[in-house]
Amino acid sequence: MTDSAPLSWSPIEWDDPCGGTIRLWPFVPNVVLTDSLRRSAGDWDGLAFLLPDDESEIWDEQFEQEKASPGINRDSIASSGGTLARMMMGMSSIESIQTCRFPDPEPRRLLIAAESRSGSGNRPVFFVEPEDEEWTEWVEDCADEMVRLRHLVRSIFSGRVWKKTLRQAMKDASPPNSERDDSKAYGLAQASALAAAWWYRSESVLSEELCSRRDARLASRLRGALGTLCGGQIDDEGAPVLLVPVMQAWMPSIYSALENMPLPEHVEVEEE
Q1: pTM for the model
Q2: Residue 268 covered by a domain
């Protein structure tokens, strides 16, 4: 697990020497961001998710589930135990902002915007998590790592570890400067800390080598998606911007992986 870093609300741009820009845009899972934070995404020409290509179908299913029974996904996770349940229960106590929303509101909002034919028009969408033997091997290696004795022992003291991790995350979190409403700003800081604590705990059961392999592969495919975007997928002049929504706590690692300049791996545009 890499050391935690201050949790930034500002996007990070990475200019690819082969052309175009990858803009990493931070969000907090299951939280509706305020208008000021949404505007920070700026103008963009294509959209890439660090997710598998069936994720949009899962979002559609969750949307229907929530319409039929509001809160069903939140309640299911909260009752399951583990760090994700702790995050969800903590977020449910925040009253100043909308939390525990399913499907994940910000990624799905951006997907709808990309697929809309009004405004900026239909824009290319990429889901960059691969489906091949190399990725399957990585998933299997993760499973082997998570059942090692030291992780099983730590799970016995999960409540104590969660509190310690949350204290660290609270030090890393801060209210967004762009939000003028103090109650919303501090609510966002709380949600940021809870999501970061969940992420830090999730990463702590993986070795640094496993995390590096994952991030390097995804960064390679982000470069490939940007290359596809530059290769004629848009009509606008100038260098295109590929917007990448990424969990706030994960963003520094993905940026570091891009800085290591992995070779681009070709990625096709997602079919509607």
Answers
A1: 0.93
A2: no
